[in-house]
Specification:
Length: 199
Amino acid sequence: MGSAPSGFFPLPRSSVRGDIPREVSGHHRTMTESGKPILYSYFRSSCSWRVRIALALKGIDHEMVTINLIKDGGQQFSKEFQALNPMKQVPVLKIDGITIGQSLAIIEYLEETRPTPRLLPQDPKKRASVRMISDLIASGIQPLQNLSILEQVGQEKQLTWAQNVITSGFTVRLLTWPPHSSGADPTEHGRPVLCRRRG
């Protein structure tokens, strides 16, 4: 499988068949034999990074399965993975007997079922602000410069397209960021997780 990219924690080889895990074909299972939640992820996926950060901040021990979005034409398109997530996207989290897709839905579930430490502010107005910015990233920026969209844009225009989308979204993000934030508490406005964006 080669060397792992920086910041990537691969699943032990005993649980992996190539880059596709044995758990994928048995998608009715919700836990590994160790009883840990399973996160289906890819190191280039910023959505997956959000969930990984949330799991780390909450101290939730889990297994991670690599779904390579590029290799073999994209392993997310395999029948095995589509059985987990018909949208053919990562991340997917198996936890507590259920399978959850969409990073913000996963993080909200973790927050509701494992409330300590908090990822969202207690104040409803601040929570609304965090969710607004989170949706801006997850809906207004990211989908417009994902691989599936960039392929439609064409090779020559990909970089310009992605830069314009990201710049536009981040400009709005800066304008709407709570001006009273001191930044002393990393979870005060949900910054490390809900608004995480890589690249």
